Amino acid sequence: MRIIHTSDWHLGRILYKKSLLEDQRFFIYDFFLPAMDELLPDAVMISGDIFDRQIAPAEAISLFDGFISELCIKRGIKLLVSTGNHDGADRFALASELLSRSGLYIASHLDVTSPPVRLESGGEKADIYMLPFFDPARARASLESAGYGAENITTFSDAYAAVLDIKCRDMDSGAVNILMAHCFAAGAAKSDSESVMYLGTAGEVPPSLFDRFDYAALGHLHGPQKSGEKGRYSGSPLKYSFDEEKQRKAIFVLDINGGEINVSEYPVKPLHDMRTVSGSIEEIESAAKLDTAADDYIYAKIEGAPVYEPMLRLKKVYPNILDLKNGSLASLDGNSERDELREQLMHSRGGEMSVMTEFFRQMCGYEPEEQDIALFKELLSDTEDKA
Description:
24% strand; 3 domains; 11 helices; Purple Acid Phosphatase, chain A, domain 2; alpha/beta
């Protein structure tokens, strides 16, 4: 039996005001579905955060809808989806029994009494325990509705321990048991693109809770990593922040043979990579002319003094540049000096030109040149004419 583990697609993501739907469409139709044709899995697990926000844009919903048809109907591959904290769980809770007959299983609301999904292929049996994202309040509500006490549940650790104790009461030792969950496991490494669910340790789940399973297919964290003995984060298939630029992005392939699971990674090939370039603006421009991947998403660190309109210059050589740091800016030491300067400028008789000159001194570290002064006067004149 072969199962694919992936998570955190974040369809509809916007990065630095740039929609990534084109990249996500490429991932689905030019990478993922062809990979399925090569790997021929029995099932695909997506462990949460299919969409980037709870009210997903229509284009993102349409993209995922097309993917479901391609995977489940055209290819006959089962799809198991557990919702994450970014997904609108209520919007997934529709016709679950009907969808399961077509090979689509969705867990959007916590039900401590629901049985696992049984998969059988090649003489192997696997039970998939699907947990959507839930917090202690949702855990208490689900436990109480099923007739269990829940008054002592205050943390995520309490909630997961109580839910799994009930879920696993009738676990079949003759099957491979797999957990799908969307949570933050204690000790795991975070990325800038992940939303903070809870401050401190109250939102953490001990990885030891996954030990009763043969494999825990985790979602929420965007860097691929292990969590305890049984847990694994597949990570997001695409890079969603520049601190992820060194991360390897992949989907995980679970091969089950004789009740044992072998896990391997299948690298993702994106439409655009994400990386940082640095140097003086002249050095960056020169390097870009020889750059065979100039269409990548770029963050530029311009060294030395700030330059005029750097984004316009760099877009000519890096059309998909997203952001930059424009040189080193000098700053004043201490609030007292800053306040004193503000008072001087407010009562200065030099007017706008004095403020502009001091801005160059304090923020740019040099005196304004003749072309700077001429441009400022031109802009000032235009403003006065319009007034």
